[in-house]
Amino acid sequence: MAREQLKNLTEPMYYILLALTTEQHGYGIMQQVDKITNGRVKIGAGTLYALLSRFEKEHLIVQVAEDGRRKIYSLTEKGLGILNDEYVRLNRLVLDGKAYLNKKGEKK
């Protein structure tokens, strides 16, 4: 997965990386995403573990510990950079939308 492929993250990708700004295991990530989004976004185990594997291969996250069967992950600098890039991109979308809708409202 080249950086170009990560230019626009999916919603689950974004929230998984956001949850990993603090060390988490898989189930903890699912709980954190649920908390961050007030239950709006649900990430299934299949999606979560497929993305964790993908992120680990691309060095966006790293396994920092193992507690029994639980693997604990953390965001790398590369992962944090991609998360920050997506945050900026999403904010631009919102600002563009506000500006456009405000202009439309002024024309009435």
Automatic annotation (TrEMBL):
Gene3D superfamilies: Winged helix-like DNA-binding domain superfamily/Winged helix DNA-binding domain. SUPFAM superfamilies: Winged helix' DNA-binding domain (SSF46785). It holds the Pfam family PadR. Signal peptide: none annotated. It comes from the Bacteria. Residues 18-79 form the Transcription regulator PadR N-terminal domain. This is PadR family transcriptional regulator. It comes from Chengkuizengella marina. The lineage of its organism: Bacteria, Bacillati, Bacillota, Bacilli, Bacillales.
